[in-house]
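Exercise 7.
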Amino acid sequence: MSAEATNPGNPGAAGRRRGRRRLELRGLRRIGRAALLGPAPRDGLPHALEHVAKVHRRHHPEADLDILAKAYQLAESSHRGQLRKSGEPYITHPLAVTLILAELGAETTTLTASLLHDTVEDTEVTLDQVRERFGAEVCYLVDGVTKLEKVDYGAAAEPETFRKMLVATGNDVRVMSIKLADRLHNMRTLGVMRPEKQARIAKVTRDVLIPLAERLGVQALKAELEDLVFAILHPEEYATTRALVLEYATRPDPLTAIAERLRTVLDEAGIGAEVLIRPRHFVSVHRVRLARRELTGADLGRLLVLVAEDADCYAVLGELHTCFTPVVSEFKDFIAAPKYNLYQSLHTAIAGPSGEIAETLIRTHQMHRVAEAGVIALGNPYAPTDGVDAPEGERADPTRPGWLSRLLEWQRTTPDPDTFWTSLRDDLAQDREITVFCVDAAASGADRPAGAAGGAIDLPAGASCVDAAYERHGEAAHCCIGARVNGRLATLATVLHDGDSLQLLMAPDSAAGPSPEWLDHARTPAARLTIARWLAGACEPGGRPATPGEAPAAAPPAGRPSVPQDRSGAVPATPGSVLAVADLPGAAVRLAGCCTPVPPDTVTGFAVRGGTVTVHRALCPVVARMAATGRQPVGVRWRGAGQGGHGCRVTLLAEAFSRPHLLADLTEAIASQGAAVVSAAVEPPHEQRVRHTYTLHLPNAAGLPSLMRAMRQVPGVFDVLRAGRARQAAVARP
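Solution. The predicted structure, written as C-alpha cells, is:
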C-alpha cells in the first residue's frame, strides 16, 4: 500500500488516525490466528472477522455483515486442514485479502467474494453452491478470479487464466480488484518460495498486474506491489534506496516548515484545508534519484492539501502561487482533464525559503479516496441509483473505457496463448492514453466508407495514424492511404498527440492492403495483429495478396471463358495491368504493390494462395524476406519481350526542398506526362526537406523514364526514386 499521508509533527499517528495506515503482515497474521479459535460467534460474527468488520463499518456504516459471516464460515470449513507454504492455516490468506479490500473501502459483495475466492479453485465447493448460497453476483466474481487447471491447459494455463479474468473484468471491474488484493498478499508472503519462483511471480506482477492496478486507479495497491517487486528483482538498488531513506529520516524534514507556513497562509485566506506530508514509496524515491541524480530532503515526500470542494482546489492553488514562488513547468490540472484511471488532482511545485522545491498535490477528500483506491472507492459501480434500475445490458463503465475495450477486442481475435500473452504485456506497457478527435471525411467532401462518422477515440500514448485507422475501421483500415492531422497531410507513421484532430483518407479500391512497414508504426496489439494476419495470410494457399497494393485475382464472370493460357501455361495479369507470365502452369499473375514493377524491370515471382504468382522487382526487400524463409522463387517475364505497351501502376518518391506550391507543381508535371494520380502522401518537412510519395497509373510503361525526368525538372526537386529504392533511401535520411 502507498505511503500514508502524515502530519509533520507526528507522522505515524496522524496516518493511523485517518485510516490510511499501511497493512502490516504482522497484523494480518494476528487476525489469521484468530481463525484457530474456531467460528465461535460474538454478536453474530466469528472472532477472525472482527477486525475486518470494524474496518468495513468505517467505510460502510450500514453494511449487512450477516453475509460476510456466512461466507467466512463456508471458507473456513472448506479450507480447514489446508496450510500455506509458510505453515499458516490457509484461511489466513482469504482473510488477509478481504482486509486489504476493506481498508480500501470495498463494498460488502466484493468482500464476500474475496473470502470465497479460492474455495472453488482449491476445495470441493462448486460454483453452483456459491450461486445458491450467495447469489449470481458473488458467483460471477468468484468464477472470474478462479484459475484454470494446468491439467487441462498445460503451459497455456497462466495466459488463458489472465484472458479469462480480463474478459470477466470487462463485465465487472471488481474481479480485477480481488485479483490485485490476492496478488498483494501473495507478494507479501513470497519469501517462503524458491528464489527462481519469486522472480517469475515478480516479473508477471511487474508486467501485467501493476499496469492493471494503475489503469484501474488503485494507487495504494500499485505502490506496494512496486516496492515488493523492486526488492525481489533489483535487490541492490532496493537496499541502496532503503538506506538513503533511513539516512534522511534522521535529518530535519525541510517539508515541515513549508507545510506549516502553508497552513498559516490558508488559514488567513479563510480556506479550510488539511496540509499533510506524504512520503514517497521506495520505487518513487528511486525514480526521482535517477531523474535528478542528487536528492534533497524535500525530494523524499510531497505536500498533500485536502479540501472540501472542487472550487477550493483552485483557491488553494491561487494562494500557493501568490505567496510562494511556483515552478511553472510542474503545473498540471488533472481536475479539468482527469486521467483515464479516474485520477483527479492539481499538481504544482513551490520553492521553500531555503530554495527547496516542494511538489504539492491539491485535491478534495473524495478525489483522495479515488486516487488511493480507484474503482474500489466507487463501491458497487453497477448498482442502480436513485431507485431506478439501469437498462438491461447497459452498465456505466466506471473506468474510461478505451484501454479495456481495446484489450477485450483484440483478445477475441487472438486464439494463440503465446501471442495473447506477449500482446497483453506490450499493451499494458503503454502507461498513458491520449484522445484523438476523428473528423468526418464527408464534412470535407472527401469520399469515405459507409459509417465512417466522426468522434473521439482513445489510444495509448505513442500511437500512430496506423493505430487510429484500425481502432476506427477495423479490417477496413487495410484501405487507408493517408491522413490529415490537424488539417495537414501526414503519413500513416505520424505519431498522434492528445487532442489532435484526425481525418483518415481511405482508398476507394477495397483491394488495397497494408505494407509490411506498417508493423513498425503500429503500437496497439489490435493493429499489429490485424496487419500481421493479413500479411501472413498473403503467403499461404488461398489467402490474400502477399504485398500491399496488389489487386485481387478476379474470377471470370459467369458465362465467360477464362483467360487463355500461353504456350508455357502461364496466365497473364488481370486486365488493365502490365501483362506478365510465370513459369508455373495454370498460375494467375499479380504485380506487387510494394515495389510496383514495370517493364523492363528485372523481376522474380513467388507463389501465394490460390496458385497465384506475385511479381516483384528483383531488388525489392520482400524478395529477400521471402528467400530467407525458404520460399522458392518462380520464374516470370514480361509479355511482348519486355516491351511496355500496356498500362501499369507505379509508386514514385520525390525528394525536394520544402517550398510553397511544390505539390501543385509536381502534380502538374505528372499530368503533363499523361499519368493519373491514384494516391499521394506528403511527409512533414524535416530540416527544410520534404518527401512526396505518389502511386500513379501510366497508360504505357515505356513512359516511366520521361515521367521521372519531368518530375526531377520541377524546381526544388533533387531526386525521384522508385518505391523499392525509396525504402533504402529512407534509412539514410536524417
